[in-house]
Amino acid sequence: MEIDQIETFLAVGTFGGFRRAAEALRLSQPAVSARIKALEQSLGVALFERRQGGLALAAAGRALRPHAEQLLRAVAPARQA
Q1: Who contacts 58 (Cβ-Cβ below 8 Å, separation ≥6)?
Q2: How deeply is 51 buried, as exposed, middle or buried, from its count of CB atoms within 10 A (0-12, 13-18, 19+)?
Q3: Are 57 and 65 a contacting pair, CB within 8 Å?
Q4: How buried is 50 (Cβ within 10 angstroms: 0-12 exposed, 13-18 middle, 19+ buried)?
Q5: Greatest CA separation found in the chain?
Q6: Phi and psi (nearest 5°) for 55?
Q7: Of the candidates 23, 6, 21, the residue with the CA atom closest to the CA atom of residue 69
Q8: Rounded to two decimals, what is the model's pTM?
Q9: pLDDT digits over 6-59, tens only?
Q10: 45 phi and psi, to 5 degrees?
Q11: Helices assigned H by DSSP within 1-81
């Protein structure tokens, strides 16, 4: 699990899709997809449910989200230092 994967996970969850998350993160859609795939593989779970209208957090994604947010809050001061 890498910080950029966590940032991407939160962006996809917030924006509801890979394309909008890619735009927000200034990445290509394939790069966002690759980060999410790598994170899901490292955790051994699907974080999103792919639906006709877009993406929704799966149960594992809902469980991960508060920890991911806390992790990024903790990392922010380290990046600023």
Answers
A1: 45, 46, 47, 48, 49
A2: exposed
A3: yes
A4: exposed
A5: 43
A6: -115, 150
A7: 6
A8: 0.91
A9: 999 999 999 999 999 999 999 999 999 999 999 999 999 999 998 887 789 999
A10: -145, 155
A11: 3-15, 18-25, 29-43, 59-80
Give CA torsion, residues 1, 75, 25, 4, to 10 deg.
-20
Identity of the amino acid at 58: A
Q: Tens digit of pLDDT for each residue in 44-64?
A: 999 999 888 778 999 999 999
Which residue from 39, 30, 80, 77 is spatially nearest to 58, judged by alpha carbons?
39
- The answer to whether residues 11 and 21 touch, using CB atoms and an 8 Å cutoff, is yes
Measuring CA to CA, which residue among 73, 74, 49 is closest to residue 61?
A: 49
Q: Which run of H or of E encompasses 78?
A: helix 59-80
